[in-house]
Specification:
This protein is 69% helix and 0% strand. By secondary structure, the protein is an all-alpha fold. The chain has one domain: Orthogonal Bundle (Tetracycline Repressor, domain 2).
Length: 207
Protein backbone atom coordinates (compact mmCIF):
# COMPACT_ATOMS: atom_id res chain seq x y z
CA UNK A 1 0.00 0.00 0.00
CA UNK A 2 1.31 3.45 -0.88
CA UNK A 3 1.87 5.72 2.10
CA UNK A 4 0.36 9.18 2.28
CA UNK A 5 3.85 10.67 2.13
CA UNK A 6 4.79 8.67 -0.97
CA UNK A 7 1.53 9.63 -2.64
CA UNK A 8 2.27 13.31 -2.11
CA UNK A 9 5.77 13.14 -3.55
CA UNK A 10 6.38 14.77 -6.89
CA UNK A 11 7.83 12.64 -9.70
CA UNK A 12 11.52 12.01 -9.15
CA UNK A 13 11.29 12.40 -5.38
CA UNK A 14 10.39 8.80 -4.55
CA UNK A 15 13.89 8.08 -3.19
CA UNK A 16 14.26 11.37 -1.36
CA UNK A 17 15.55 10.68 2.19
CA UNK A 18 13.02 11.35 4.94
CA UNK A 19 15.48 13.62 6.72
CA UNK A 20 15.17 16.08 3.83
CA UNK A 21 11.38 16.23 3.94
CA UNK A 22 11.05 19.63 5.60
CA UNK A 23 7.72 20.11 3.82
CA UNK A 24 6.30 16.78 5.03
CA UNK A 25 3.45 17.48 7.49
CA UNK A 26 3.69 13.93 8.88
CA UNK A 27 7.24 14.72 9.97
CA UNK A 28 6.81 18.33 11.05
CA UNK A 29 3.55 17.79 12.96
CA UNK A 30 5.32 15.48 15.41
CA UNK A 31 7.44 17.63 17.74
CA UNK A 32 10.01 14.91 18.40
CA UNK A 33 10.38 14.07 14.71
CA UNK A 34 10.56 17.77 13.82
CA UNK A 35 13.38 18.35 16.31
CA UNK A 36 15.25 15.34 14.97
CA UNK A 37 14.74 16.56 11.43
CA UNK A 38 16.11 20.01 12.24
CA UNK A 39 19.12 18.50 13.99
CA UNK A 40 19.90 16.31 10.94
CA UNK A 41 19.71 19.32 8.64
CA UNK A 42 22.08 21.23 10.93
CA UNK A 43 24.52 18.30 10.96
CA UNK A 44 24.45 17.96 7.16
CA UNK A 45 24.93 21.70 6.64
CA UNK A 46 27.90 21.73 9.01
CA UNK A 47 29.36 18.64 7.34
CA UNK A 48 29.28 20.44 3.99
CA UNK A 49 31.03 23.42 5.57
CA UNK A 50 33.79 21.12 6.83
CA UNK A 51 34.16 19.59 3.35
CA UNK A 52 34.34 23.07 1.80
CA UNK A 53 37.07 24.12 4.23
CA UNK A 54 39.06 20.93 4.88
CA UNK A 55 37.99 18.46 2.19
CA UNK A 56 36.45 15.05 2.70
CA UNK A 57 39.56 13.95 4.62
CA UNK A 58 38.66 16.49 7.30
CA UNK A 59 35.23 14.99 7.96
CA UNK A 60 34.67 12.91 11.09
CA UNK A 61 31.97 12.75 13.71
CA UNK A 62 34.34 14.50 16.10
CA UNK A 63 35.18 17.30 13.64
CA UNK A 64 31.54 18.04 12.78
CA UNK A 65 30.50 17.78 16.45
CA UNK A 66 33.19 20.32 17.33
CA UNK A 67 31.75 22.75 14.78
CA UNK A 68 28.27 22.28 16.25
CA UNK A 69 29.44 22.51 19.84
CA UNK A 70 28.04 19.10 20.77
CA UNK A 71 29.45 15.68 21.66
CA UNK A 72 30.23 13.16 18.89
CA UNK A 73 27.53 10.88 20.30
CA UNK A 74 24.94 13.53 19.38
CA UNK A 75 25.88 12.91 15.72
CA UNK A 76 26.07 9.12 15.85
CA UNK A 77 22.50 9.11 17.13
CA UNK A 78 21.45 10.44 13.71
CA UNK A 79 24.26 9.17 11.45
CA UNK A 80 25.80 6.04 12.92
CA UNK A 81 28.79 5.73 10.56
CA UNK A 82 31.02 8.06 8.60
CA UNK A 83 29.56 6.62 5.38
CA UNK A 84 26.08 7.58 6.62
CA UNK A 85 27.26 11.13 7.24
CA UNK A 86 29.04 11.47 3.90
CA UNK A 87 26.09 9.97 2.02
CA UNK A 88 23.74 12.47 3.66
CA UNK A 89 26.05 15.34 2.72
CA UNK A 90 26.36 14.14 -0.88
CA UNK A 91 22.62 13.59 -1.29
CA UNK A 92 21.84 17.00 0.18
CA UNK A 93 24.33 18.78 -2.09
CA UNK A 94 23.20 16.95 -5.23
CA UNK A 95 19.48 17.32 -4.50
CA UNK A 96 19.89 21.09 -4.38
CA UNK A 97 21.29 20.95 -7.91
CA UNK A 98 18.80 18.34 -9.12
CA UNK A 99 15.86 20.42 -7.98
CA UNK A 100 17.26 23.41 -9.84
CA UNK A 101 17.68 21.23 -12.95
CA UNK A 102 14.05 20.16 -12.63
CA UNK A 103 12.88 23.74 -13.03
CA UNK A 104 14.93 24.50 -16.16
CA UNK A 105 13.10 24.80 -19.46
CA UNK A 106 15.66 26.25 -21.87
CA UNK A 107 19.34 26.30 -22.74
CA UNK A 108 19.51 29.86 -21.40
CA UNK A 109 18.19 28.64 -18.05
CA UNK A 110 20.90 25.97 -17.93
CA UNK A 111 23.65 28.40 -18.91
CA UNK A 112 22.52 30.77 -16.14
CA UNK A 113 22.63 27.99 -13.55
CA UNK A 114 26.02 26.65 -14.63
CA UNK A 115 27.52 30.14 -14.63
CA UNK A 116 26.26 30.66 -11.07
CA UNK A 117 27.45 27.28 -9.81
CA UNK A 118 30.90 27.62 -11.33
CA UNK A 119 31.24 30.94 -9.56
CA UNK A 120 30.71 29.23 -6.19
CA UNK A 121 34.10 27.51 -6.15
CA UNK A 122 34.17 26.22 -2.57
CA UNK A 123 30.75 24.63 -2.75
CA UNK A 124 31.44 23.24 -6.24
CA UNK A 125 34.72 21.71 -5.03
CA UNK A 126 32.94 20.14 -2.05
CA UNK A 127 30.25 18.62 -4.28
CA UNK A 128 32.78 17.18 -6.74
CA UNK A 129 34.97 15.81 -3.96
CA UNK A 130 31.97 14.00 -2.46
CA UNK A 131 30.85 12.93 -5.95
CA UNK A 132 34.25 11.44 -6.83
CA UNK A 133 34.45 9.70 -3.46
CA UNK A 134 31.76 7.36 -4.80
CA UNK A 135 34.46 5.75 -6.96
CA UNK A 136 36.05 4.38 -3.77
CA UNK A 137 32.98 4.06 -1.56
CA UNK A 138 30.24 2.08 -3.35
CA UNK A 139 27.68 3.11 -0.73
CA UNK A 140 27.74 6.60 -2.26
CA UNK A 141 27.19 5.50 -5.85
CA UNK A 142 23.40 5.52 -5.87
CA UNK A 143 23.39 9.10 -4.61
CA UNK A 144 25.95 10.05 -7.26
CA UNK A 145 23.85 8.46 -10.01
CA UNK A 146 21.06 10.91 -9.18
CA UNK A 147 23.23 13.70 -10.61
CA UNK A 148 23.57 11.87 -13.92
CA UNK A 149 19.88 10.97 -14.07
CA UNK A 150 18.77 14.55 -13.47
CA UNK A 151 21.09 15.88 -16.19
CA UNK A 152 19.96 13.26 -18.67
CA UNK A 153 16.31 14.06 -17.92
CA UNK A 154 17.07 17.73 -18.54
CA UNK A 155 18.75 16.87 -21.85
CA UNK A 156 15.61 15.01 -22.95
CA UNK A 157 13.42 17.99 -22.05
CA UNK A 158 15.68 20.16 -24.18
CA UNK A 159 15.23 17.83 -27.15
CA UNK A 160 18.44 15.80 -27.05
CA UNK A 161 18.71 12.20 -28.19
CA UNK A 162 20.58 9.40 -26.35
CA UNK A 163 23.98 10.67 -27.49
CA UNK A 164 23.10 14.17 -26.34
CA UNK A 165 22.06 12.95 -22.89
CA UNK A 166 25.48 11.49 -22.10
CA UNK A 167 27.26 14.32 -23.86
CA UNK A 168 25.54 16.87 -21.62
CA UNK A 169 26.67 15.00 -18.50
CA UNK A 170 30.25 14.98 -19.81
CA UNK A 171 30.09 18.65 -20.83
CA UNK A 172 28.76 19.88 -17.50
CA UNK A 173 31.33 17.85 -15.56
CA UNK A 174 34.09 19.05 -17.85
CA UNK A 175 33.14 22.70 -17.46
CA UNK A 176 32.90 22.39 -13.69
CA UNK A 177 36.24 20.61 -13.34
CA UNK A 178 37.94 23.15 -15.61
CA UNK A 179 36.67 26.01 -13.46
CA UNK A 180 37.99 24.25 -10.35
CA UNK A 181 41.33 22.93 -11.60
CA UNK A 182 42.44 26.17 -13.24
CA UNK A 183 40.48 28.56 -11.00
CA UNK A 184 39.03 30.30 -14.05
CA UNK A 185 35.70 31.83 -14.93
CA UNK A 186 34.46 30.05 -18.04
CA UNK A 187 33.00 32.68 -20.41
CA UNK A 188 29.22 32.55 -20.73
CA UNK A 189 29.41 32.20 -24.52
CA UNK A 190 31.75 29.22 -24.13
CA UNK A 191 29.31 27.57 -21.75
CA UNK A 192 26.51 28.13 -24.25
CA UNK A 193 28.48 26.68 -27.19
CA UNK A 194 29.62 23.61 -25.23
CA UNK A 195 26.09 22.92 -23.98
CA UNK A 196 24.58 23.39 -27.45
CA UNK A 197 27.09 21.00 -29.04
CA UNK A 198 26.52 18.45 -26.30
CA UNK A 199 22.75 18.52 -26.74
CA UNK A 200 23.23 18.04 -30.47
CA UNK A 201 25.49 15.04 -29.77
CA UNK A 202 28.46 16.78 -31.41
CA UNK A 203 32.06 16.88 -30.14
CA UNK A 204 33.19 20.24 -28.78
CA UNK A 205 36.55 21.94 -29.11
CA UNK A 206 35.50 24.99 -27.12
CA UNK A 207 37.04 24.05 -23.74
Amino acid sequence: MTSRRAARQAPGRENRPVWLEADDPDVMADGRLARGHRRRIEIIAKTLEVVERDGVAGVSHRAVARELGVSPSALTHHFATLDDLLTAALVSALLWTEEHFAGLRSVDDLVDLLETQMGQRKRLAAVYELYLLAARRPVLREAARGWERSLMALARRLGAGPDGELALVAAVDGLGLRALLFDVDVPRETIRKVVARALAGEPSTQI
